[in-house]
Amino acid sequence: MGIKVFAPASIGNVGVGFDVLGMALERPGDEVIARKSTIPGLRIAKITGHGGQLPYAVEENTAGVAAQRLLEHLGAHEVGIELEIHKKMPLGSGLGSSAASAAAAVLAVSELLRTGMSKRDLLPFACMGEQVASGGFHADNVAPSLLGGIVLVCSNEPLEVHRLHTPAGLYAAVVYPHIQLLTREARAVLRAEVPLRDHVRQSAYLAGFVVGCFTSDLDLIGRSLKDVVIEPQRAPLIPGFYEVQAAALEAGALGCSISGAGPSVFALCSNSLIAENAGTAMQRAFQERGIATDLYLSKVNPEGAVVC
Amino acid sequence: MGIKVFAPASIGNVGVGFDVLGMALERPGDEVIARKSTIPGLRIAKITGHGGQLPYAVEENTAGVAAQRLLEHLGAHEVGIELEIHKKMPLGSGLGSSAASAAAAVLAVSELLRTGMSKRDLLPFACMGEQVASGGFHADNVAPSLLGGIVLVCSNEPLEVHRLHTPAGLYAAVVYPHIQLLTREARAVLRAEVPLRDHVRQSAYLAGFVVGCFTSDLDLIGRSLKDVVIEPQRAPLIPGFYEVQAAALEAGALGCSISGAGPSVFALCSNSLIAENAGTAMQRAFQERGIATDLYLSKVNPEGAVVC
User: How far apart are CA A28 and CA B50, in angstroms?
Assistant: First the structure.
């Protein structure tokens, strides 16, 4: 008997909070099944879906590393456990695919071993898994994928995350264009310095976004959902980005920016109808450049990773 | 018959939000009296207190300019009005002295003329007055002085400010060391660029501070009340700053940083007793360097400028 866990995709940065903000989606997401095995130690038994290129070696796989670090912490690394990873979302899309697998893996293993650990307890181990993929200890995708909601990462070391209040009605349209963009590449384009003036403006936007969440002021969220620091540097990596963004805003979206390191583009909207309109408008804008896309419509996922 | 208005001092930046955050104090503050006069136009009739060096020319005086812009907006610049300005707080202290005079002036004139304008309506005019002193259109002292509370300036143009929730118990100790430090000088030391890494950390601190206010999480406010961008650059302008800061934290303050452009240093505390202890500890630390000080103890002022 195994434990099957679903962990959702997430919008890293949420446009306004580079490396500190993340938001969980309802779908897509990854599934990880953990089950006991007679062979001692952790083993990845199966990977399906988009993950044709994912490694089976535990120490090279985000889900594997996350599970392994948890087992070591529990002193249970001799227990025989096998993982099945079912990738149900694109890799390298900017939707936190590796984070979702890591989040699902730790929860599945924890439930299998009935550790009684909370999801917050599990978070650091999921982050260690995500580290394999991203090269850095970042919780801005892992935390929302595991805990759900809109999450502020106050500190990575020591790890401290806080869930913001999620305003009713907030809906996301996420468009994944079928182009390749490596996170490493998207990091490499970033200047090491930010003009003080932009730092001040961006800080005000982030703080305004947080106020908007707590006061359920969707208009304020819209006025605050701007990125004057990162977006201008990464937009050139996504063909037609500004047309896509304009299409979303014309369709009534509160705001629109790049999801994580891209290439996915997200729009936040005040209801599901506007999200649908914004989503199809964004798809059309990509299509005009001959770029195929997937569209995901989703409210903010309130619960994150779940046993299913 | 005149209208007398008190407008309080304020802590600009509040350490964590350079140019975007401000907090109103209960005291000290300035008083402005506005009364009708038979001579047409606006005139500054009297200035008392620390303002020996303040100009009587309307267009050179922050209170004068603020009142004048309001009168022009009302089409009432021919009405005879005289102002008395009673400075009851030090100039150039980093406590928003010019902002307080501007805030008091617009409210006094508005009440005198029974305009029915709200304090929010009056805010832009007070900012125009403050501009004379600071050289820039900043609302981070004017807004708290006029409106009270902890205020986030989301945008200067168009002007948009939001009051944060003020956690019960939050208390400030503010120490004004008797040294001269010009705002211009304090601005001049600032580097034009911020390392991306510090931008991310500081953004997280500001967002954490805002979350802490809305959730009344004083510990989170304490962990967030840090300035890795501006404080390290301005601290050398305040002799003994780090000793003063350490003294405040040892006395139990949640956090401690520079008020506005300095030289005043503030500590936020979880109650009035700790604030008193932190305040006297900070005074002692300055005293060891032979620097005389004034101490102001105050809870967050919830109402800002008031007719009295």
Answer: 64
Residue % of chain A over a pLDDT of 70? 99
Inform me whether the pLDDT recorded for B50 exceeds 90. no
pLDDT at A90: 87
A163-216 pLDDT, tens digit each: 999 999 999 999 999 998 777 777 889 999 999 999 999 999 999 999 999 999
End-to-end CA distance of chain B: 13
CB of B81 closer than 8 Å to CB of B112: yes
Residue A232 has pLDDT above 70, yes or no: yes
CB of A264 within 8 A of CB of A181? no
Which residues have a Cβ under 8 Å from the Cβ of A304 and sit 6 or more positions away?
Answer: A7, A8, A24, A103, A119, A144, A145, A146, A147, A148, A149
What is the spatial distance between Cα B98 and Cα B63, in angstroms, rounded to a whole number? 8
Structural Rg of chain B based on CA atoms: 19
Q: Which residues are within 8 A (CB) of A170 and not within 5 positions of it... i.e. 6 or more apart?
A: A218, A221, A268, A269, A270, A299, A300
- Cβ atoms of residues B260 and B13 within 8 Å: yes
For B204, the closest of A153, A192, A215 (CB atoms) is A153
pLDDT-derived band at B165 (thresholds 50, 70, 90) equals very high
Domains of chain B, earliest start first: 2-164+303-307 (3.30.230.10), 171-299 (3.30.70.890)
Closest alpha carbon to B43 in B33, B53, B51: B33
d(CA B169, CA A70): 40
Q: Is some CB atom of chain A closer than 8 A to the CB atom of B152?
A: yes
* B210/chain A closest Cα distance in angstroms: 7
Residue where the block lists tokens 């008083």: B31
DSSP conformation letters of B17-42: STTTEEEEEEEEEEEEEEEE-SSSSE
Taking CA A206 as the corner, what is the angle to CA A200 and CA A209, rounded to the nearest 5 degrees? 140
Residue pair B287/B244 in contact by the 8 Å Cβ criterion: no
In terms of pLDDT, which residue wins out, B170 or A90?
Answer: B170
User: What is the spatial distance between Cα B277 and Cα B300, in angstroms, rounded to a whole number?
Assistant: 18
A273, two tokens: 């109808």
ipTM surpassing 0.90: yes
CB B9 within 8 A of CB B145: yes
Interface check for A136 against chain B (CB to CB < 8 A): the answer is no
Chain B residues closer than 8 Å to A220 by CB? 154, 162
Q: What pLDDT is stored for residue B133 in this prediction? A: 78
| Residue A154: both structure tokens together | 């106050």
How high is the pLDDT of residue B3?
97
Per the CB < 8 A criterion, the answer to whether A210 and B207 are in contact is yes
pLDDT, one tens digit per residue, over B112-134 is 999 999 999 999 999 999 888 77
Phi, psi of B209 (to 5 degrees): -60, -45
Q: Is A192 on the interface with B (CB under 8 A)?
A: yes
Catalytic residue selected from A62, A166, A183, A293: A183
The rounded Cα A281 to chain-centroid distance in angstroms is 23
